[in-house]
Amino acid sequence: MICFVPMDDADYKIFTDNAVKEYAEEKALAGHWHPEESLRLSTETYLKLLPQGCRTPDNYLMRVVDVDSSTTVGVIWYHHQKRGMHSSLWIYDIAIYTEYRRRGYGEQAMKMLEVKAVEMGANKIELHVFAHNPGALSLYKKQGYVVTSLNLQKVI
């Protein structure tokens, strides 16, 4: 069983140090950004989305913790979006650390997020997944997520 524990400043620093680098690599791999500028663009994106760090309003930066062992097995960052009468949670990042994968933690985290969404009055959860990440795509499809749009490209 897992729980979400809010990140403190030290957790946030570790998270962003890793996440900024990984996002830069993902965007370059997907062909969205040139590799030489991807780290700068990723840093700028994180600063824009989280101007107050882990205290940015309506953003929830959490450690995913195994309750039995008190071990942090991953992280999740979601944003509560309110647009008129609609409310949703947008998952910016979810990562189960490599050594804890394939143990059900990802599924538990997604189910826990559904509970949080209901508690917050959200009627849907949304996210983006890179096409070159079939493991994540499989997890989301198994959890009942459906594709709502596709980006295609042809390198010439």
The portion of residues assigned to helices is 25-40%
- Kindly state the number of beta strands: 5
Class, according to the CATH hierarchy? Alpha Beta
CATH fold naming: Aminopeptidase
Uncertain spans, ≥5 residues at pLDDT below 50? none
CATH superfamily heading: Gcn5-related N-acetyltransferase (GNAT)
> What is the domain total for the residues?
1
In spatial order, strands of the major sheet run 1-2-3-4-5
Strand share of the residues?
25-35%
Say what oligomer this is: single chain
Number of discrete helical segments: 4
Separation, N- and C-terminal Cα atoms: 48 Å
Structural notes for this entry:
The chain has about 160 residues and is of the alpha+beta class. It has a single domain, classed as 3-Layer(aba) Sandwich (Aminopeptidase). Helix content is about 40%, strand content about 25%. The protein has a 5-stranded mixed β-sheet with strand order 1-2-3-4-5, with helices on both faces. Strand 4 (about 85-95), helix 3 and strand 5 form a beta-alpha-beta unit. Helix 1 (about 10-30) crosses helix 2 (about 35-50).
What does the secondary structure layout of this molecule look like, with pairings?
Blueprint: E1 2-6, H1 9-29, H2 35-49, E2 59-66, E3 71-83, E4 86-96, H3 105-119, E5 124-127, H4 134-142
Parallel strand pairs: 4-5
Antiparallel strand pairs: 1-2, 2-3, 3-4
Helix pairs in contact: 1-2
